[in-house]
Amino acid sequence: MPDSSPAQGGRRQRADAQRNLHALVDAARAVFDTTGVDAPAKEIADLAGVGVGTLYRHFPLRSDLVKAVVEGGVDAIADLGPQLSAEHGPEDALREWLRQYTMFLGSKRGLAPALHSGDPAYKELPGYFMAKVGPVLAALLDSAVTAGVARDDVSAHDVLYAVANLCMPVPVERPGYQPQRMVAVLVDGLLGSGQRRPRSG
User: Fold this and answer.
1) 10 confidence band (pLDDT: 50, 70, 90)
2) Domain boundaries along the sequence of the chain
3) Residues 71, 128 contacting (CB under 8 angstroms)
4) Is the Cα torsion angle 90, 101, 128, 82 positive or negative in sign?
5) In this structure, what DSSP letter does residue 201 have?
6) Dist. CA 197–CA 201, nearest whole Å
7) Which CATH superfamily is domain 1-60 in?
8) Are 120 and 66 spatial neighbours (Cβ–Cβ below 8 Å)?
9) pLDDT at 4
10) Residue 127 near residue 70, CB atoms below 8 Å
11) Could you tell me if 48 and 20 are in contact, meaning their C-beta atoms sit under 8 angstroms apart?
């Protein structure tokens, strides 16, 4: 017979709640990308396969949901660094991570109105981002420098900010602008043989 003890029931409820939480964050990410952060709560809940009440139980404020989406994306891009390092050589790992980072920034355009609104609810996000992502890129960059495939006079923060600036929206009169292409040019300069410098010390 199935175990219907209170402990078993409690574990099942926690597992269901965790699944709902993940489903809501995934749904919000998709909806924000297409509709924006002001999308109706019902649209998000319907995509997640839960009721609106479940959404508000997990995320009482819209800012709570926005933060969860951003932090989830930051965690994913940070976790990708060690994975790429284990699967690829230093140069390929760095190139692929920066490509994924560029895609990550592009996927946050739907969140821009909220993140740039000055709402104090988001004041901790820049620090969260740098604490998670900065060390990951620094490790990838150090490995590439040690392998002799990257210049050693550029910091991880320099690269993060440079890529972020290249990914900023451009005026409507430049509809053909492609951030991925310009980031690839930047990465070629970072890793190109003509730009390598001998490692000091």
Assistant:
1) low
2) 1-60, 63-201
3) yes
4) negative
5) -
6) 12
7) Homeodomain-like (1.10.10.60)
8) no
9) 54
10) no
11) yes
